[in-house]
Design a protein that fits this description.
Protein name: Membrane protein
Helix content: 55-70%
Low-confidence stretches: none
Shape: flat
Keywords: Membrane, Plasmid, Transmembrane, Transmembrane helix
Largest sheet: 2 strands, antiparallel
Radius of gyration: 16 Å
Length: about 120
């Protein structure tokens, strides 16, 4: 079963995080990058928790995958691709490629999930 609502919610969540963290590529100092990332992620996670409290159908704990092997397979493929990129050390690889490889398994498996409770 495909859950479009939860899959889109997860996709938009990762797209917003990518858009907010994209300025990391132009900031030269690692200290400023870490402070910026921590502040942004704390604010964003707080807003997500408040939204999920009002809409429990979007909580991750309320969803179960319909294809149990999918997330594991995607994590293994993403990890292998990340290792290949790191071994090759291609200079054209930037933040968005790393981020997409990390986020893809979670987003794709979110589409292939179902709600634990029938009343959502």
């Amino acid at each position: 079963m495909i859950d479009i609502n939860y899959g889109n919610y997860t996709l938009f969540q990762y797209l917003i995080i990518a858009f907010i963290l994209f300025p990391i590529e132009i900031i030269p100092s690692w200290l400023i990058i870490m402070i910026y990332a921590v502040i942004v992620l704390i604010i964003f996670s707080t807003l997500l928790k408040l939204f999920e409290r009002r809409n429990p159908c979007f909580k991750e704990n309320n969803h179960v995958t319909t294809v149990p092997w999918l997330r594991t397979t995607l994590v293994v493929l993403s990890t292998a691709m990340l290792l290949i990129i790191l071994i090759i050390k291609d200079s054209s690889v930037d933040f968005l490629i790393y981020y997409a490889l990390i986020a893809a398994p979670h987003v794709i498996s979110a589409y292939f999930s179902t709600s634990r409770r029938a009343h959502f």
